[in-house]
Automatic annotation (TrEMBL), chain A:
The keyword Nucleotide-binding appears for this protein: no
BP-aspect Gene Ontology terms: branched-chain amino acid catabolic process; sulfur compound biosynthetic process
Domain of life, per lineage: Archaea
Matching Pfam families: E1_dh (PF00676)
Region described as Disordered: 1-20
Alphabetized GO MF terms: oxidoreductase activity, acting on the aldehyde or oxo group of donors, disulfide as acceptor
Record flagged with keyword Electron transport: no
Annotated keywords: Oxidoreductase
Signal peptide: none
InterPro entries to which the protein is assigned, alphabetical: Alpha-ketoacid_DH_E1_comp, DH_E1, THDP-binding
Span of domain Dehydrogenase E1 component: 59-341
Protein name per the record: 2-oxo-3-methylvalerate dehydrogenase E1 component subunit alpha
From TrEMBL, chain B:
Cofactor(s), names only, from the UniProt record: thiamine diphosphate
Highest taxon of source: Archaea
Protein name per UniProt: Alpha-ketoacid dehydrogenase subunit beta
The organism of origin for this protein: Halobacterium bonnevillei
GO MF entries: oxidoreductase activity
Domain named Transketolase-like pyrimidine-binding: residues: 3-178
Length: 387, 321
């Protein structure tokens, strides 16, 4: 470089002298996208371009989500499941987003079960999953989806799936559903940065349902929003009203288009977990009735019904008949799940490796032999295929 | 007082927080809700929000920050909600907590405790059932403790918090509430690195710890022989002397643990016996362990434990030679 050329700061073209200026959260204004206001009002020009059948479809899936959670909590209380995490209150957030996904997309979820049914997973397999039967996840995998139990652990996998789609030139995206709590894990931050740096078709869909077990979203992070975290990783973000199914649909649909072009996107959906973390949790220990009541008033199904009434679509929807159909589907699924037979002990050793190593084979045989020689072992063992 | 294991944990935390202002308790859901197993219930009310802290969902930071607090002079007691969620923080144990003393030639240290419920049997989802003490005991510089009785739980936890080195305190959640035991209200320690002889005998030695102690004692009671039962209590550093002396006396041994068989603590105990008591052995040392598989999900998790008939089978095998 000659001495006459202007110099540039190596890190940034713009330099400033004087008092250092703090970059603050107030530099950032993050809007929350909304189509239908809590009072049911909306601007007809802003409604996403869906036909009447699709509008009704969204309602049906939201109702499926609500009925499924209710029935699962009920059978857990009867001792027919180990535990269960209800999604009540998050129906718009879950359905509006999943409705945009295509069959070749991959879906890795936390707290979103109905999207699997939308992709063709039988309800029976979800019941089996919550009964602790490995075949549940096998069925999910056949429909390009999985559930992550270890919070945040799935985000790097989703970055890798998306990378594979990019390498293969496939017309698909990989989606991670995560919660507010997951945004505090190291795995999430590494994965979001990684996806942003490699520009892979990954969609990070964060349902901020305000609680990670007992910890509120305000206590989870000092950041004003979760959406803004993506910006630091060079990734664009949308914050959306998670109680407004049309806003969620529109936001994620637009996000998916960008992701498909190799621009990963992070979406924060602001919603609320109405029920306990799981059936083992007692939320009255850490949140007030007033708070829960306020969110009950922001019920996503009710808000969407206001929209359907205004559009003249509600008269064609027989809510009670749909609910009865979903209940019947659940009854049939439960019956099918109950028909699942006890498995042989060799199942414990299956699928640990592609090929069973000799020592593991020996452990399996010795255990089968022991069960025959000492049937009193069954006094201590109960196989519970029915929960 | 009569207390369960989880009540003994709570009592030890109350005792030490009252005795030492430097003790800070933190983790996910430990403060406001008192922990998912209620092990930290009441601490927030008694000791306030500076010393009892609900953290973000960040295992790496929980263990790493505990190390930093300890280096700065505090006595952190961090909780990992389930042992299946410790793996992300494995790096902090291996890279920092266990090495600070060694790295600084003793100029710094990390006197800290990471508490976590471990083991299967509570019918939860995947990652809520692991017994990975073998992996953790493999880290030089880290102590690994697993109590099996309410009395020992309080004494070992008090000793762990006061220990000059980092301690991974593995709580047997399957027996968290399964029985009560006399737990002194006063302050006492059960020293780390000392096994306990739970049952004296002359024919055979069984070594176990944590959640496997009740089935081990049941099997010893059923055996048609005079069985000695050793509760290791501290996995690392291990009280090999108590084990070796017992085996020299009995000439036969069985090791029982819940975690996978291969590359586990059981193999290490057998090696110690071979090193120091080989010529006293009258039979090969038996291992009764979990399988070399992930813990089955809840519909089949019962199969995974070494239940008393499995332990008894091994005892009879060792006696038959």
């Amino acid at each position: 470089m000659s001495e006459n050329e202007p110099t540039e700061h190596p890190a940034n073209a713009t330099v400033s002298a004087g008092e250092p200026r703090f970059l603050t959260q107030d530099d950032l204004s993050v809007d929350t996208h909304q189509v239908v206001a809590p009072d049911g009002s909306y601007d007809a020009d802003e409604v996403p371009d869906l036909d009447d059948e699709q509008f009704q479809d969204l309602y049906r899936w939201m109702l499926t989500d609500r009925v499924f959670s209710k029935r699962m909590v009920n059978i857990q209380r009867r001792g027919e499941l180990g535990t269960f995490g209800s999604t009540r209150g998050q129906e718009a957030s879950i359905i509006g987003s999943a409705y945009t996904l295509q069959p070749d997309d991959w879906l890795y979820v936390g707290r979103a079960w109905t999207p699997m049914f939308m992709r063709g997973v039988p309800m029976k397999d979800m019941i089996m999953f919550w009964r602790g039967i490995e075949e549940g996840q096998q069925s999910f995998a056949e429909h390009n989806c999985q559930i992550a139990i270890s919070i945040g652990s799935h985000l790097p996998l989703v970055a890798g799936l998306a990378w594979g789609m990019d390498l293969s030139g496939d017309d698909a995206i990989a989606t991670a559903y995560l919660g507010d709590g997951a945004t505090s894990t190291g795995a999430a931050h590494e994965a979001i940065n990684f996806a942003g740096a490699l520009e892979v078709p990954a969609l990070f869909y964060c349902q901020n349902n305000q609680y990670a077990i007992s910890l509120s979203a305000e206590e989870q992070t000092g950041a004003n929003t979760l959406a803004q975290k993506a910006l630091a990783y060079g990734m664009d973000a949308i914050r959306v009203d998670g109680q407004d199914v049309l806003a969620v649909y529109e936001a994620v649909n637009e996000a998916r288009k960008r992701v498909r072009n190799g621009e990963p996107v992070f979406v924060e959906s602001v919603t609320y977990r109405m029920d306990a973390h799981t059936t083992s949790d007692d939320p009255t220990r850490y949140r007030s009735d007033e708070e829960v009541d306020a969110w009950e008033d922001a019920d996503p199904l009710e808000r969407y019904r206001e929209f359907l009434r205004a559009e003249g679509l509600w008269d064609d929807i027989d809510h009670d008949a749909i609910e009865a159909e979903i209940d019947a589907e659940f009854d049939a699924a439960l019956e099918e799940a109950n028909a699942f037979e006890e498995r042989g002990v060799e199942e414990i050793f299956a699928h640990v490796y592609a090929e069973l190593p000799p020592d593991l084979q020996r452990q399996s045989e010795e255990f089968s032999d022991l069960l025959e020689r000492r049937p009193e072992l069954y006094d201590y063992i109960e196989q519970r295929p029915k929960g | 007082m009569q207390a369960t294991i989880v009540e003994a944990v709570k009592d030890a935390l109350h005792t030490e927080m009252a005795a030492d202002d430097d003790v800070v308790v933190f983790g996910e859901d430990v403060a406001e809700s008192g922990g998912v197993f209620r092990a930290t219930d009441g601490l927030l009310e008694e000791f306030g929000e500076d010393r009892v802290v609900d953290t973000p969902l960040s295992e790496i930071a929980i263990v790493g920050a505990a190390t930093g607090l300890a280096m700065y002079g505090y006595r952190p007691v961090a909780e990992i909600q389930f042992s299946g969620f410790l793996p992300p923080a494995f790096d902090q144990l291996v890279t920092n907590a266990s090495r600070i003393r060694w790295r600084t030639r003793g100029a710094l240290s990390a006197p800290m405790v990471v508490r976590m419920p471990y083991g299967a049997g509570v019918r939860a989802l995947e990652h809520h059932s692991e017994s990975m003490e073998g992996a953790y005991a493999h880290i030089p510089g880290l102590k690994v403790v697993a109590p099996s009785t309410p009395h020992d739980t309080k004494g070992l936890l008090l000793a762990s918090i006061r220990d000059p080195d980092p301690v991974l305190f593995m709580e047997p959640k399957r027996i968290y509430r399964s029985f009560r035991d006399d737990v002194p209200e006063e302050d006492y320690e059960v020293p780390l690195g000392e096994a306990a002889v739970r049952r004296e005998g002359s024919d055979l030695t069984v070594v176990s710890w944590g959640s496997m102690m009740p089935p081990t004692l049941d099997a010893a009671d059923e055996a048609d022989a005079d069985v000695e039962v050793i509760d290791l209590r501290t996995i690392s550093p291990m009280d090999t002397e108590t084990v070796v002396e017992s085996v020299k006396k009995t000439g036969r041994a069985v090791v029982v643990h819940e975690g996978p068989r291969s590359h586990g603590v059981g193999g290490d105990i057998v090696a110690h016996i071979n090193d120091e008591a080989l010529m006293y052995l009258e039979a090969p040392v038996e291992r009764v362990t979990g399988f070399d598989t992930p813990v089955p999900l809840l519909s089949m998790e019962d199969y995974y434990f070494p239940h008393p008939p499995r332990i008894l089978d091994a005892i009879e095998d060792a006696l038959s030679v």
